[in-house]
Design a protein that fits this description.
- By secondary structure, this protein is of the alpha/beta class.
- It has two domains: 23-169, 3-Layer(aba) Sandwich (Rossmann fold); 182-359, Vaccinia Virus protein VP39 (Rossmann fold).
- The chain is built from ten helices and 16 strands.
- The chain has helices at residues 23-32, 49-57, 70-79, 112-124, 143-149, 209-217, 235-243, 256-268, 305-317, 332-337, and strands spanning 39-43, 62-67, 86-89, 99-106, 126-136, 156-159, 164-169, 182-188, 191-197, 225-229, 248-253, 274-278, 291-296, 318-328, 343-350, 353-359.
- It has a seven-stranded mixed beta sheet, sandwiched between helices. A seven-stranded mixed beta sheet has the order 12-11-10-13-14-16-15.
- A hairpin with a 2-residue loop joins β8 and β9 (191-197).
- α1 (23-32) packs parallel to α2.
- It is elongated, with a radius of gyration of 22 Å.
- The two termini are 31 Å apart.
- Mean pLDDT is 94; it is low at 1-16.
Amino acid sequence: MNEVPNEKKSIAAPAARKVEIRVSEERLFSVVNAIPGRDIVVLSCGRAQIAGRLAKNRSDANVSAWFLDRHHAQLADAELSETHANVLCAADWPLEKAVDLVAISLHKGGESELARDFLQNGYQNLRDGGILAVGIDNPKDKWLLGQMQSFDKSVKVRKFKDAVVYYVTKKKPLKKFKDFSCTLAVRDEGNLIQVITRPGVFAHRQFDNGARQILDSIEVFPESSIIEIGCGSGAMSLALATRDRSAQLFAIDSHARAVDCLQKGARLNGLSNITAEVNHDGELGQRAGTFDMALANPPYYSDFKIARHFVETSQKALRPGGRMVLVTRKPQWYRDNLATWFTDCEVFQSRRYHIATGVKQG
């Protein structure tokens, strides 16, 4: 299995239009700009513009922006291209040394367990006397304040009309570093599969019903080569690799922590026929055009931009005669568009979902 690297500014980022900085990050910057520190890590719910601003204001500082998702890292890299801030993409805290300042911007509609994971990582990786500063776009917040007070009661507060910023000085290490990962037991054709999930990964702490519909709709043939696009925690790949260990599974996801979950799951289940890599652009190199089957469970938002990317990646991945199978709750787009890339297209209902399938022309 391939390991997940710490991605730095080697990410090939296209020229991008500048986007508006998020409210929580704007207010956070107004606070942390006055806080001293040379080694700084930023965790952003946007494009990490705060990292670029801090880098410009502190020419001798080491400023890094940490992302879990390579696509988000790519967008931030384009945003910060004119600064010396580093963009890092990794499943876990990406630096080996303690830092002076950690700045985290949160969105009030975000995942609470992921926020707790980030807060814990930020505080734990501060040097003694370092400062954790966190902004959220909820001026009536109480939850985040409670989380910050769990580190130290002497939390300082800066209130704005549209956000609130908290900051606290690290005086002692955490008494306990909580593991937010979860191991699920999933049954598939008589096999019991152990699936690891983590905060930030799709369907954390649950087995997605859409993945179940795909597993119920397909068979694995001996020696077959299968790619899963957008693997998440990897439940489908783990199940299929267990069904027939002569099959070769290749799984990709733009989320470094998702790939980490699959790799850990493969080791836990004793599977050596799975390879996984962080991949956000669908470029497969020598693997393109070699797969017998492509599987995907695309999200339903973004006006089907992500779904289109998954379908196009499937078409590139498959050999002539190879079949794509994906699951959706919104079948009409696939009925209207799948024939652009495939022949023998079919969209049929599977409980509350629909399965869309097509064959790559020879």
